[in-house]
Amino acid sequence: MRKILSACLIFLSGSLFAQKTIQRDPQIEKWVKEVNADSLKAHIQKLVSFGTRNTLSSTTDPNRGIGAARNWILQQFQRYATQSNGRFYAYLDTTTLAADGRRVDQPINLGNVIGVLKGTDTSDKRIFMISGHLDNMRTNVMDRVNDAPGANDDGSGTAAVIESARILSKQSFPATIIFVAFSGEEQGLLGANFLSDKAKKENWMIEALLNNDIMGSNHSNETNIINNTKVRVFSEGVSGYEVDKNINNIRNLGLENDGAPRQLARYIKEIGERYVDNLEVMLIYRNDRFLRGGDHTPFAQKGFAAIRITEMNENFTHQHQDVRTENGIQYGDLPEFMDFEYLRKNTALNLANLANLAKAPGKPQDVKIEVRKLTNFTILNWTAPKQGKVKGYYVLWRETNWPYWQFKQFTTETSIQLPYSKDNYFFAVQAVSTDGNESLPVLPVPSRN
Prior knowledge:
alpha/beta, Immunoglobulin-like, Aminopeptidase, 2 domains, four-stranded antiparallel beta sheet, 9 helices, 24% strand, globular
């Protein structure tokens, strides 16, 4: 077995608190500092100014309705394109949907606003996505006429997308980053279904989707908890995509907690806590809130690694509510109930992860764990990724009951022997760029060779 070139880097051992920094990329650290609370507030105030952004509202009125809102987002993206040296472009991706007898009572022009920051490596087909939904609703989801501010749901997620595009469109990455403001979320994830169908049909290589929905308030109703130091990341443990074909392998290897969305969630926790101070990422072992859904769901259902980022403590008096005062309580999704410093941190969480992923090499290939004989050691082998230049690899491991990776060991080799039993630990391998940016981890498959 080849000699391992570096010592084990232990970033968590037994602690229930945030993972510790291993290394900050100076470029990403600089971009994170550019995320601006005032800029985010201005984005949300502009979105609120359109009166309503209900999916059924006007697409032709220049000042009011979802059409005016999506055109304004498109204009922001097009303005950012002028600073990108031709790498960034934007468009409105539209389709006509017929009435469905449920939440669409007439034919509508559905439009997602999409910005694309093209990767510099033409052979690198990887795509990393960030999304929020630009539409909103009153108490009655069919009310397309009256005012609905939608500041937090989901002005916050949309503002995070716009702000991330503002900063990252000036940069260049080997892989492609796509920024999406979905329409039709409140009417049944219409825009997300439309785009995920297209992505699947056209074989888009989406390696991660970070969906942001309700992420800018720190104060819950009923319990009155106030906390802007925690954010939730929802992910499913086993993808429902072709689960019937994979269930035996999942059961045999004990991978019920290691589907692609769950691996992405762990990655987001590590990178987010590395770059964003005073923020703890809470991994929630559900695809979404209890019996609820979001725009990441159609992507996860099609086999993509897709997760949802949401504030820690939701306030339901400010969500899906007509603006009114009852019994001394102010209802309605108004900007004054938001915490823009908290939104800044949650946006920085997104930006740091997108940048780290897009700067990283592709994932290691052919990652295998040797099972020729019973042993208390574990032997892993792999080959170089198809995309990008690598400085080396991180081998990860964690106890089987631990929620995220506990240990990292760096090597420049493509094999390793560890004094840990495969009975008691899970293992994975990441590729590492010359700047120290890690790919998503890859779990090994058994090999008897």
